[in-house]
Design a protein that fits this description.
By secondary structure, the chain is mainly beta. Helix content is about 5%, strand content about 45%. It is built from three helices and 20 strands.
Length: about 325
């Protein structure tokens, strides 16, 4: 058993706890493409490959609206999780899309690398998820992708930001979905996608849903697993970004905000589950991890256990309003 889990009991009644980090001591590992609001690098997805003895870290770059939005995504390799070497990239022009967002990078039990990408579907202006496969993270071909999930497939207004967990050979895909707006008329439905980002309209909310698969390609929609409530700091968004299994529970880090005006500036909360279907919030009173810089953004946490440490990769607000990519090692 991994030592990090053996230490959980240690003569105390502390079962399934996950160590957190101090956001003030995180190390910047990649800079945004500019200074000020709307210039971001982040939305990471990361793995450690025991065969190559490398970390592989996906991220996307973004500029403000009108200047490019999510215009490029990259994959870096790293020996220590800190020093990065770029080995792959794709652009919004490759996808003929308005914007790209987070992806889920995984290595299958069979040794194949997969990248589940989210981007705005040029056909209907709604977010969708596609799959790339390769024998190495440097060899993904953006022009050879397979549709995994479109919003219309499950009757919602958008699907994005996938996070993949493989448990016992079964694929669990957690994703941000935008439910249909209740009693929406034609003009309201039209407005939802006029800006190619339903999550930034306030017409609907950002919830976490679950789809499952036995092969990682053909997914069945299970439904909602974590939705915003009617009040609180996370009443507009509850987006699961990563999950850690510390027996006997799964601990989920999720991004939350109270209102659409805070969109893109999420903070981090915690939830737990025993079955990956039913989640209970642990942080109803407020976020547990934030940036000390206004507006406090700390989002898209990706946790990678390696040896006796946890590597936390995340997007972090700088004093000038831009977001950089950081790592904290616990």
């Amino acid at each position: 058993m991994n030592r990090i889990y053996e230490l959980r009991c240690n003569g105390k009644h502390w079962l399934g706890t996950v160590p957190l980090f101090n956001p003030k001591t995180g190390m910047p590992i990649a800079d945004p493409p500019g200074q000020g609001n709307g210039y971001w690098i982040g939305a990471p997805s990361a793995i450690y490959d025991d065969e190559t003895r490398r970390f592989y870290i996906y991220c996307r770059l973004r500029k403000p609206r009108g200047e490019g939005r999510g215009y490029e995504c990259r994959i870096y390799e790293s020996e220590d999780g800190i020093t990065l070497n770029q080995i792959w990239k794709a652009t919004k022009q490759d996808l003929n899309t308005e914007s790209m967002e987070r992806a889920a990078l995984v290595k299958t039990p069979g040794g194949i690398y997969r990248l589940y990408m989210s981007y705005v579907d040029p056909a209907d202006g709604r977010w969708r998820i596609d799959l790339l496969e390769a024998e190495s993270p440097s060899k993904f071909d953006i022009h050879k992708r397979t549709k995994i999930l479109c919003a219309a497939d499950i009757g919602v207004e958008g699907v994005k930001d996938p996070y993949i967990l493989i448990v016992g050979g079964k694929y669990y895909m957690f994703l941000s979905y935008a439910p249909p707006a209740p009693n929406a008329d034609h003009e309201t439905r039209k407005a939802m996608h006029a800006t190619f980002d339903v999550y930034n309209t306030g017409i609907t909310k950002s919830c976490t849903g679950l789809a499952v698969s036995l092969d990682g390609v053909n997914f069945s929609w299970i439904g909602d697993v974590l939705s915003p409530g009617d009040s609180g700091w996370d009443k507009y968004a509850t987006r699961i970004s990563s999950i850690v299994y510390a027996p006997p529970v799964f601990t989920a880090f999720y991004d939350g905000i109270p209102d659409v005006k805070d969109n893109y500036e999420e903070k981090t909360g915690l939830a737990i589950s025993f079955d990956l279907v039913h989640f209970e919030r642990l942080t109803p009173g407020g976020p547990i991890l934030t940036s000390p810089n206004s507006p406090g953004t700390l989002r898209y946490i990706e946790v990678v256990p390696h040896e006796d440490k946890f590597y936390y990769f995340y997007e972090f607000a700088r004093p000038d309003g831009s977001h950089d990519l950081r790592v904290s090692i616990v």
